[in-house]
Amino acid sequence: MKYQTSKLKERSLGFVAFFALMLFASCSNDFLDIGAEDRIDKTTFYQTDAELVNAINGVYAKQRIVFNHYGTYYLQDSRSDNAALNQQDQPERVASDVFQELTNNQEMLISWSQLYDVVNHANAIIANDREVEGNQELVKRIIGEAKFLRAYTYYQIVTTWGGVPLRLLPSEDFDNIVVGTSPESEVYEQIKADLDDAIEVLPATYGGGKGNEVGRATKYAALTLLGKVELQLGNKSDAETNLRQVLGHYQLLDNYADIYAAGNDNTQESIYEVSFDPAGNTGYSLPNWFIPNDEAIRLGIAAGGNPAQILQLFPTQSLMDEFEAGDLRAAATFSIALGDNDPYVSKFIDLAAASQGYNINMVLLRYSDVLLSLAEAIGENNEAYDLINQVRRRGFGFDPNTPNASVDIDMASPGTFQEKILHERRVEFAFEHQRWTDLKRLKTPEEVVQMMKDQLFEQEGKNYDVKTTDLLFPIPLLEIQISDGAVTQNPGY
Fold first, then answer.
1. Cys bridge to 445: 113, 182, 208, 468, which one at CB 3.0-4.6 A?
2. If we measure between CA atoms, which residue out of 126, 128, 127 comes closest to residue 47?
């Protein structure tokens, strides 16, 4: 058992107060900036469409906090065979990397709290029953944006923890703070319901200007996420139906490295991304921890790198070996530090970055994901291989729409169709929070466990006890304590 029995009464009270007061955090007046947090009088808030715009901007800001925190990598990439963690790092981070975390792991609790903070702010908009003055079409659209953001966040939560408290109302006081565990199936049904509603009211594009900034959630973002959700559930026909509606509305960039080029935001390939902006003091600072400080100095990055030279995560040998000869995605994903010859993640490098952070957005949904997800949903046939080959051709520097015998694959190529899908997704989306959910979807639990055991042995030279129950993280102990048993622990912890 990994269960800790120590009493945490004082911290439990603080956790309850945190959720009870989250609703009153103020929202940014700008889509990209985070305003100072303060208490807002609920009796006077959300009375106009302009206030609702400010409110939804605050939800986007909360999502940015999630993706600018290293917890997103511990819950996904580090858990998988793509990333390793220096075993001299903080013990709770190391424990998560090797499937040994306790239920009171504070790094996990931070991520849990940040994710539910996004949910709670979205809930405050969705559950707002006040007659809002102004443009009613705008009001409907904003509620659709909130439902998309809530759905995306619950997708992160359910793929990480399984059955969890399904909070659908804002935590305004101590009376509604405790919500019991809902089965995983109910969480997924709510995600799908939110996305169905969002699809009905969200626009295909935004024209710019206050409240209509490019980068907000669109109809196609909701369709793409719904397709991925259905695929994760094994509903391939439904996934295909949704993903086909996105075909032709985006296109692959010519150069794979341009996806994360500094300042290259909301491109023709991008369907939804988390916005960062150094000019508004909301730059992407997390990549600093992926690069050794001496390497950052060598490259002339004013923001520097990891001063302790203990990287929060770095590419595994198996990931680096996965790239085929001539695949340009390798050089755009990782590099080797000249000082110590060690690999590091270079996918998000901004050579001009200073103290305000990197001028790089985190792309959560992009067109290559639609192509590969649709191929998976269709199953092995000529159309599916054409979709895969579009992604491969671009990866090797060729025109995605022109057949190329040197890189194209088909039914006769070595490996099963599942193996080909997994390979292409691994090299295409490395360090983009995809690999762990891909493995759990396309491999059996026993296969994933054996892969992780083999990976950890290669990485650390010793055997770790990994079980199928470890494929879900434990519910944070504090959440269970404050619920007085309404929230239940996952098996095996």
1. 468
2. 128
CA 202 to chain centre: 21
Q: CB within 8 A of 14, min separation 6: which ones? A: none
217 close to 272: Cβ distance less than 8 angstroms:
yes
For residue range 411-462, what is the model confidence (pLDDT) as tens digits? 999 999 999 999 999 999 999 999 999 999 999 999 999 999 999 999 889 9
Residue 44, judged by CB atoms within 10 A of its CB (0-12, 13-18, 19+), counts as exposed
For the chain, the structural domain boundaries read: 9-217+443-482, 286-345
pTM as predicted: 0.92
- For 309-335, how does the pLDDT look when each residue is reduced to its tens digit (9 = 90+)? 678 789 999 999 999 999 999 999 999
C-alpha distance from residue 244 to each of 237, 249, 315, 377, 410 (Å): 11, 10, 33, 10, 21
CA dist list (Å): 305 to 289, 294, 302, 308: 6, 7, 9, 9
With tokens 């190391």, the residue in question is 94
Residues 21, 38 contacting (CB under 8 angstroms) = no
